[in-house]
Write the structure tokens for this entry.
Amino acid sequence: MVYDGKFKWIEFNMPGSDRVSVSKNEAGSSTVKNIGDWRMAAQEREQFDLTLAAEDTLDGDKTWVLEGPLREEQKAQWGKYPPEKVRMFVSQSDCMARQILFYDKDGKEFMDDQFTNVKTNQPVDPALFKYTPPDGVKINDMTGGVLPAPKEKTPKDDEKRNEE
């Protein structure tokens, strides 16, 4: 996910169906400011009945593994196919999520959110927030028509998009 100050871009890499979703978020909205941090864990705790299941290591980082079923009262907000349970890996060093796995009613993993290259309290290069979707992926424009209709991409289009 990349939030450039105006738009939130999320890449979905699924077999045979790579997509990019773009939506407009107000700066400071919870869906932007809580990504990966302890508030995200708190949001998951409201939706799922989480318990400490284990400890594990991801990329050399010791994590707590929290898991549990979706709370019954939360199922409606997930739509037609809510997750049955979640498994969440939270760093012991900074309490930020490193990975969240969602499972369907058959116990099959259907979504894997990974948070990599996590750094806290570091200077940030603004170029990190410029995003260009990969060539050939379908773009789900959820901005309410703020973005122009897709056409054949040119380098000038990329420059214009990065300037916005």
